[in-house]
Amino acid sequence: MENVTVVNKFNNEHVTNLWPECKIIHGRPRYPQSQGSVERCNQDVENMLRAWMIDNQCTDWGMECYFVQWQKYFSKHRIINRSLIKHYLEVNQK
To answer: Is the pTM of this model over 0.85?
Structure first.
């Protein structure tokens, strides 16, 4: 168990050195059902980032995250039939 802690600490330090604005939060989701949707979203972002980096021949994933984030927010969600950012803004106006 101690080895896992050392590896996690190294990874956390490595990420924060590469990306100082990144805030690593340790914790659990409020509901177990939400874990699956979080993992699916993470996988979507990883796939989008990988495709973006291959298409644009980039190696700096930290900078490319901004482009992928924009794509994720403005892409049309198949269930709510609108972009996530548009949905968020409409919900918060009420």
So the answer is: no
